[in-house]
Amino acid sequence: MKLLIMGPPGAGKGTQAKILAQKFNLVHLSTGDILRKEIDKASKTGLKAQTYMNAGNLVPDKVLLAMMNSTLTELKDHGVILDGFPRTIPQAMGLSKIFQSLNQTIDGIINIEVDKDVLINRLVERAKNSGRADDTEEVIINRQNVYSELTAPLIEFYQSDIITIDGDGSIEKVTERILKRIH
Ligand code: ADP
């Protein structure tokens, strides 16, 4: 099973992706987590990604596509849930090529929706303990703007294939809403 989970920063996609991964025995692929590990290792990819990430901008599509091509090829025999990828239309087109070359398709796309005010509040709260360099108020606002400009168009791109989930409420409530829709 190949699932995508989308939503603006702060929507809770990472949290829900972890829960779904455990429940359905999927590998949770968070591109944000993978990139942060690359930065810690000071790898080539990490060095390329760092300045973009710290400013709350997207890492170039080429970097992400190369990284995900090798990761998804390696994991071709596993179920996966993609969290934070694709984040642009060119990434979505690249992803469909990757899956085509592996003879695979996307089985479900979950989009978690939350109001912008709620998101900024959540992220400012999370920032107090996250230790992430991109969790300052200025960068948080930039990440929301980048989302609206570059990632939100994916909703139209995937259109009717999307399962829309209301992300306002407790973690358990949101999980329950997802599970009701993906059987
Ligand atoms: P959030 O969704 O809370 O903003 P993530 O951990 O998913 O956090 O992503 C953190 C940062 O990693 C993004 O702001 C971006 O710089 C980079 N990143 C993650 N995924 C991608 C992607 N698919 N394309 C480009 N950049 C990405």
Q: Per the principal axes of the C-alpha atoms, what is the gross shape? A: globular
Overall pLDDT, averaged?
A: 94
**Can you list the ligands bound to this structure?**
adenosine-5'-diphosphate
In whole angstroms, the N-to-C terminal distance is 12 Å
Instruction: Work out the helix count.
Output: 9
H-E order? EHEHHHEHEHHHEH
Largest sheet: 5 strands, parallel
Give the SSE layout.
Elements: E1 2-6, H1 13-24, E2 27-30, H2 31-41, H3 44-55, H4 61-74, E3 80-83, H5 89-101, E4 108-113, H6 116-130, H7 137-151, H8 153-158, E5 162-166, H9 171-181
Parallel strand pairs: 1-3, 1-4, 2-3, 4-5
What can you see in these coordinates?
This protein is of the alpha/beta class. The chain is 60% helix and 13% strand. It is built from nine helices and five strands. The chain has helices spanning 13-24, 31-41, 44-55, 61-74, 89-101, 116-130, 137-151, 153-158, 171-181, and strands spanning 2-6, 27-30, 80-83, 108-113, 162-166. A five-stranded parallel β-sheet has the order 2-3-1-4-5. The protein is globular and about 40 Å long. The two termini are 12 Å apart. The structure holds adenosine-5'-diphosphate.
